[in-house]
Hints:
Blueprint: H1 14-17, H2 30-33, E1 41-43, H3 57-66, H4 73-88, E2 92-97, H5 98-112, H6 116-121, E3 131-135, H7 144-148, E4 152-156, H8 164-168, E5 175-181, H9 193-201, E6 207-210, H10 220-226, E7 231-235, E8 246-251, H11 253-262, H12 277-292, H13 295-313, E9 319-324, E10 334-339, H14 348-355, E11 362-364, E12 372-375, H15 382-396
Helix pairs in contact: 3-12, 4-12, 5-11, 13-15
Amino acid sequence: xxxxxxxxxxxxxxxxxxxxxxxxxxxxxxxxxxxxxxxxxxxxxxxxxxxxxxxxxxxxxxxxxxxxxxxxxxxxxxxxxxxxxxxxxxxxxxxxxxxxxxxxxxxxxxxxxxxxxxxxxxxxxxxxxxxxxxxxxxxxxxxxxxxxxxxxxxxxxxxxxxxxxxxxxxxxxxxxxxxxxxxxxxxxxxxxxxxxxxxxxxxxxxxxxxxxxxxxxxxxxxxxxxxxxxxxxxxxxxxxxxxxxxxxxxxxxxxxxxxxxxxxxxxxxxxxxxxxxxxxxxxxxxxxxxxxxxxxxxxxxxxxxxxxxxxxxxxxxxxxxxxxxxxxxxxxxxxxxxxxxxxxxxxxxxxxxxxxxxxxxxxxxxxxxxxxxxxxxxxxxxxxxxxxxxxxxxxxxxx
Length: 399
């Protein structure tokens, strides 16, 4: 994908555009050790609790320049939104305070629109359309962000599936939106997004999508808008490797305009979720690099990294190790370690606890089944990968 995003004045390192090669971080950790914080190794992928991902060097350089110049935030947000619109194929865009901040703005825009009287009323939604329908199999901790804006969530379906008639029966005169979660390890028996959009749009109700962790692949930037979503939020600080506190909000022009009106620097419900001017520029820089990177080269490098994990553990008796890569659960090549019935060593939770102990804690992805865990290469450099492999062998082969 090659797009002109309007920020070509900056040049980007080919080392990062080709294969997303990250420099070693061992010599950078003293800034944390100075305040007695232990540096960790994040092999979970993009988990915010463990630092998300490593911000691109080019992004930090541009942010340093942008932090020293004053601009009008409304103008900056408007022009940044045009960049996001071009990337996502949406009518408009906005830089939010992380993906969770984007969820608050989605709900606020659908409940109160751009009406200042209604906007000031939030999160009190008495008398307003305040119901957001969500499939029960899409409920997750972050949907509290919708309730932050005053929404009342209306669950439909069962724990693992939902039927079209259950969605159709849930609409009332107070329905403000239908929320849709796209995430790894979610139920594939949920109603497809296209079906949800068709049913909701027939009733004049917008569909708002949380796709925070669904980049890469880069094709997802446009996928959900193309499928009919009215607003979509992506994290800017996960796979895009922009500022950790940034989000990519895109969608219908009137809804994005309303979301921006609720957001900082304006004095409405989104005011506490401030995005600094340098973070906006940093995100645009990261997006440009992201869309220009060769995804095949990137995935090839991740495959090579994860094959090293497989090769190091394949002969450990009682476990199965494989490289997984698909469009549902493993969006980049990742090493899946599964315990077989004849496994005699520590269980999954014990392995995770031991890996996370010591002077340099290592955190692994445990979002799958109870008898498996994953090594993700997204936030690892080669030096860290070797440490992960060595520690895994020590823990798994301990007598």
